[in-house]
């Protein structure tokens, strides 16, 4: 075997697990879901193909209103994750000492050592009517009786931001770590103040990591199930709950598949619009972020 053939074989062996993972666990299931979404049941075990499931979705306001509500709250969660995560990422990448960065990263990673279910129940323990927050406020004399902080949109947003914040911090840290400090010094030497240097130098340089973080956070928030359901309770209107209801409760796989395809398509459109507005493209964002 020649050296060239050996190199090709090595490349194939290296890429094979990734290609199989993409094909078997992502591409094929999505194609299967899209196929089922186009089936129309006309009798017991009898199906035809069409877009009736999509038409039924559009005719039911509660369905697409929930999809729009899920997307809008996910955008809010993404914006709050940027506000909270960017300063943390900047401190880790450019302010903290080299020895301290690993420890700070470890602190960010600790919540991921616990499952999402346990983390969400932690918020329930804190915010329920007899929870830690309500008890402390009563002890401080700030409230007269127990207050229920759960089962509203604010709690859902807080829980989602806490769940996804790390996925905003890591890409930004990765990008800012490659920025030469001489760029910051040059900005100050040219008469720029802190805000100008941040706006004209730091943010443009961090944009690939920032956009990558926004994409990941938005998709995770829109596709979340446990956090909105547990923290939002019966008042929660989250699109993934409707998908679960169609598949598991009603055993209507055709409608559930339709909802899944629409969620993927809608979130992909939002991501595409965000890339266009930010002047980024997916290839460069993934490569640099």
Structural summary, described in words:
With 289 residues, the chain is mostly helical. The protein folds into 2 domains: 1-37, no CATH class; 52-288, MetI-like fold. It is built from 13 helices and 2 strands, in the order H-E-E-H-H-H-H-H-H-H-H-H-H-H-H. The protein has helices spanning 3-37, 52-59, 61-95, 98-109, 116-127, 132-139, 153-176, 181-189, 194-222, 226-232, 239-249, 253-278, 282-288, and strands spanning 39-43, 46-49. A two-stranded antiparallel ribbon has the order 1-2. Helix 1 (3-37) crosses helix 12 (253-278), helix 3 packs across helix 9 and helix 7 (153-176) packs antiparallel against helix 10 (226-232). The mean pLDDT is 85.
Write the layout of secondary structure elements.
Elements (H helix, E strand, L loop, with lengths): L2 H35 L1 E5 L2 E4 L2 H8 L1 H35 L2 H12 L6 H12 L4 H8 L13 H24 L4 H9 L4 H29 L3 H7 L6 H11 L3 H26 L3 H7 L1
Antiparallel strand pairs: 1-2
Helix pairs in contact: 1-12, 3-7, 3-9, 5-10, 7-9, 7-10, 8-9, 9-12, 9-13, 11-12
- For this structure, what is the CATH class of the largest domain? Mainly Alpha
Terminal Cα span = 38 Å
Q: Give the % helix.
A: over 70%
In the CATH hierarchy, the third-tier topology of the largest domain is known as MetI-like fold
Main-sheet strand order equals: 1-2
The succession of helices and strands, N to C, reads HEEHHHHHHHHHHHH
Radius of gyration: 23 Å
What is the total tally of β strands?
2
- The CATH H-level superfamily of the largest domain is MetI-like
Average pLDDT reading: 85
| Inertia-based shape | globular
CATH architecture of the largest domain: Orthogonal Bundle
Q: Unreliable stretches, pLDDT < 50, 5 or more residues?
A: none
**Proportion of residues in β-strands:** under 5%
**Number of H- or I-type helical stretches:** 13
Helix-strand category: mainly alpha
| Tally of discrete structural domains | 2
Largest sheet: 2 strands, antiparallel
Oligomer state equals single chain
């Amino acid at each position: 075997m020649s050296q060239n053939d050996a190199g090709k074989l090595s490349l194939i062996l290296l890429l094979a697990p990734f290609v199989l993972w993409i094909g078997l666990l992502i591409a094929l299931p999505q194609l299967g879901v899209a196929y089922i979404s186009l089936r129309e049941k006309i009798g017991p075990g009898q199906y035809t193909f069409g877009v009736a499931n999509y038409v039924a979705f559009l005719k039911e306001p509660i369905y697409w209103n929930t999809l729009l509500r899920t997307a809008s709250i996910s955008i809010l969660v993404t914006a709050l994750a940027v506000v909270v995560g960017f300063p943390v990422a900047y401190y880790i990448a450019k302010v903290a000492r080299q020895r301290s960065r690993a420890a700070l990263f470890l602190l960010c990673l600790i919540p991921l050592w616990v499952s999402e279910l346990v983390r969400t129940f932690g918020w329930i323990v804190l915010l329920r009517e007899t929870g830690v927050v309500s008890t402390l406020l009563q002890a401080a004399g700030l409230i007269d009786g127990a207050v229920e902080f759960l089962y509203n949109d604010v709690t859902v947003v807080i829980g989602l931001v806490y769940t996804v914040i790390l996925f905003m911090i890591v890409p930004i840290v990765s990008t800012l770590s490659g920025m030469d400090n001489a760029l910051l010094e040059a900005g100050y030497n040219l008469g720029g103040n802190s805000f100008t240097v941040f706006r004209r130098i730091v943010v443009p340089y961090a944009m690939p990591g920032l956009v990558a973080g926004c994409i990941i956070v938005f998709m995770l928030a829109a596709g979340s199930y446990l956090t909105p359901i547990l923290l939002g309770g019966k008042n929660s209107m989250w699109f993934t709950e409707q998908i679960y209801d169609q598949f598991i409760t009603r055993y209507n796989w055709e409608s559930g598949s339709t909802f899944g395809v629409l969620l993927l398509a809608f979130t992909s459109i939002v991501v595409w619009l965000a890339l266009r507005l930010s002047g980024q493209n997916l290839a460069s964002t993934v490569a640099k972020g």
